[in-house]
């Protein structure tokens, strides 16, 4: 069996990676999670489309998708992926697990191509590649996580002034987006729904990481569920997950999946790493070159996000689509003698004598 040499181990540590069994388990679980979550995007989208045919769409507050079996299959797929991701956070640091979500982009884009007929142009493909390259750079320079021995230690990290300030800022941004921007721009600007999911997602990961540490320590023989802090972390995680799912459904039902997936990944990864750096002090003791490399990874991801968003803004609907979205519609029936008779389509009554017709949109 091949065993990495000491020189290779030293090289990995210089890059900020630790080739431990825990990190290997975390990476494998993160990749499995990405495959399931990427598939769930497409399955849920199919379910939302079916539900929108027979009732109000999720993007306008409809909940008919709850009766759609395909949507529930997508939910089950996502739950399996999230559980894998949850276990991955128990074994590996967040700054190593989270960027591996880049596989979600690849899976969802391939499946969207075959199942939803959603295609990315060359700029879109470039944006996806930039997101993946940025993720790889961050992974290669991810710092080694310090071991924690109790939930009390995690609670001290969560209640430090710097992280409390981040949490307050995140909640303030989310409230502004929900109360002001959603009613005005949610249906036209992709970034509104996705930003809500991403900002809340960073708090979700921190609480899940804390809960994962509690479960791991409990399985090792030190019961952490006797502390109230463990239940607080669990409550925060459940609340944030529910909020994320609600606005993610709105984003998927309103916009192209091959744009929602990579932009959501890029923003979610960025906010999560920032939160982890603040709470768990991941950059503490790291060299300036390592930190600079991680910042380059951030910039690369942001560049990919910008390119993907510009392809969305460049989409111009065809004249047929423009007129088809207008209402009401009136059909003019022209008789053979030149007289005209107009009829609204929703009236459902049509004359017996038309020789030609013309439809006007206004």
From TrEMBL:
One of its GO terms (cellular component) is early endosome. SUPFAM superfamilies: Multidrug resistance efflux transporter EmrE. It is found in: Cell membrane; Early endosome; Membrane. It is a multi-pass membrane protein. Its main location: membrane. Keywords: Cell membrane, Endosome, Ion transport, Magnesium, Membrane, Transmembrane, Transmembrane helix, Transport. It comes from the Eukaryota. Residues 342-362 are annotated as: Disordered. InterPro entries: EmrE-like, Mg_trans_NIPA. The chain crosses the membrane at residues 23-43, 70-91, 97-116, 123-143, 163-183, 190-215, 227-247, 259-280. GO terms for molecular function: magnesium ion transmembrane transporter activity. It holds the Pfam family Mg_trans_NIPA. Belongs to the NIPA (TC 2.A.7) family. Homodimer. Acts as a Mg(2+) transporter. Can also transport other divalent cations such as Fe(2+), Sr(2+), Ba(2+), Mn(2+) and Co(2+) but to a much less extent than Mg(2+). This is Probable magnesium transporter. It comes from Kalanchoe fedtschenkoi (Lavender scallops).
